Description:
By secondary structure, the chain is of the alpha/beta class. It has 13 helices and 18 strands. A hairpin with a 7-residue loop joins strand 14 and strand 15. Specifically catalyzes the decarboxylation of meso-diaminopimelate (meso-DAP) to L-lysine. It catalyses: meso-2,6-diaminopimelate + H(+) = L-lysine + CO2.
Amino acid sequence: MQGKDLLQLAEKFGSPLYVYDAEKIQSQYTRLTKAFSKVDNLRINYAMKALSNIAILQLLKEMGSGLDTVSIQEVLLGLHAGYAPEKIFFTPNGVSLEEIEEVSEMGVQINIDNLSILEQFGAKHPNVPVCIRINPHVMAGGNANISVGHIDSKFGISVHQLPHLVRIVENTKMNIVGIHMHTGSDILDIEVFLYAAEILFDAAKNFKNLEFLDFGSGFKVPYRKDDIETNIEELGKKLSKRFNAFCAEYGKELTLIFEPGKFLVSEAGFFLAKVNVVKQTTSTVFAGVDSGFNHLIRPMLYGSQHYIENISNPKGKERFYSVVGYICETDTFATNRRISEIKEGDILSFRNAGAYCFSMSSNYNSRYKPAEVLWWKGEGHLIRAHEKFEDLLQNQIPLPVEAVV
């Protein structure tokens, strides 16, 4: 997409606005499948928590993707988008046995990540195919909040608890068909990933009826110019060779599964915001936009850096700006960032806004959530409308008249 395309979309649909480039999503999906083309049985389950708009789900479904879900609501959205139950994985954390049972009855593949629920579910439903999430105790990820495979993480069953896990499986006669791990997001060093994979291979030897191994995801994408990213091609070459060798040792052709979210949609996303005010203080020039952490919380929550471009004046002289929002708390998107000279009314474009951006938005300060547009085949298609005042009231119930008189 070009800056002029984004400007036209901002004029047509208003701001703030999320825009997703379908071609980029498709190319990322193809890149990943090509990297692992040496594996006979490869399956990609899109981690829909990154971006759950049903139009995006439909786009990936047409490419052959399955879904990785973390809530029963995501499962229902996936089914609504046309996915067959067997193409959906359910990998929750800390949910009730009742929710897992309800999802299981839909025909969705469940993935259990704690011994308590595993034993309870196995005792009641020994014939239902189950995947087990292992915590490999490998510290990986770009931020503590997205590193989920270390020893202090709440996710997964500790690899050191394998004897207990195996005993539960033997006692309940459970049908274990898969082993899963996810170490964290923004993994750069593929050797760390390969090290964790060896732990998963060792764990898999304890189960004789496996059908697949799920290696999670967490591949790093570039967030700024000249940024580094996970070398998917090198990882594909090395892990494919090791996976095929393990299958030969195991005596059975298994399916290799990944569950990418950010890798598929992050770079496809643009967040457009209009500059309301340019405010000069004694030490800083602020560019205040018509948005805040109610729409894009990642810079404040994770310290993530989104490249910001003034698409209204892309070739202007660069100055230093702190880009801030309109929320009644500090909501700084960028501090002392070099951006082409900004005037009130200009449109700023935030890159890498496809993953964990709209999906983490809120109505804080009673602000409306923005619209979403899919740039597909050279046109902008509205896939979610801007919220209105009626949307804020939809589920609210006022006091009876007599109570307020």
